[in-house]
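chain below, 170 aa
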Amino acid sequence: MYKSFLVSSLFKKGLSNKIFSTLDVIKEEKLGNICNITTGKLDANAMVENGQYRFYTCAKDYYYIDKYAFDTEALLISGNGAYVGYIHYYKGKFNAYQRTYVLDQFTENIQYIKVYLDEFLSKRINSEKKEGNTPYIVLSTLSDMTIKLTNSKDENNVINTFNNINTMIN
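prediction:
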C-alpha cells in the first residue's frame, strides 16, 4: 500500500511533466477546436435504480437511467462539486447531469486527450475554478485549454506508458 502511494506521489510530482516535455509537439490546439463540448440536461435526481443506460453526474461513480441522450464515444467531466474535473471515458448510450461536460466528436485521438487532461486539467481548474459553496468550472475552462499534440506513434507511447503506470499503481 505504502509503495503504491509512494510511486503515485513521485509520478505526480514530475514524471508526467517529463514525459510530456520530451514529446515532439507538432501543434497546439484549444480543446474546443478538436471536439464538441456540451452538457447534459438532467437534474442529478433523474437517476433510477436498475436503469438501462449509464447516467453520469459530478460523482466518481456513474448511476443508471432509463433514457439516453447521447450515443457516442466521449469524455465526461465533472463540472462542479467535490470531484470537479473528474474524467470518465465511455463509448455507447448514456445520459448526463446538467453540470457534467460531455466531450465528443474528437478530431484527435480521444485516449491521448484523456491522458493529457488527466495530467493537466487539475492544474488549470485550480487556477480558474470558481469558489463558492460548491466549486465549479465554466465552459471556457475546457474549451480554451491548450492541448499539445504530437505524432500518432508518440501519442500511442504516451497512452501505453500512462496505462501501464496506472495499472501498476492500482
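The longest helix spans residues 2-21. The CA atoms of residues 11 and 85 lie 19 Å apart.
thats it, cya
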